[in-house]
Amino acid sequence: MPDTPVDPTSAENASAGARAGVPRYMLVAEALIRDIQSGRYPVGSLLPAEREIGQRFGVSRHTTREAIRRLEDMGLITRRAGIGTTVKSRLAPSRYTASISGLTELVHYAEETRLQVLSEDWVLITGDLADIVHHAEGQRWLKITALRFPGDQSTPISYTETLVPATFEAIRDGIRKPHATVFKLIEGIRGERVAEVRQDIACRPLPRPQAEALGVAPDSPSLYVLRYYYGRHDDLLSVSVNFYSQDRFKISTRWRLDPGYES
Question: Which domain holds residue 19?
Answer without folding.
Answer: 1-92
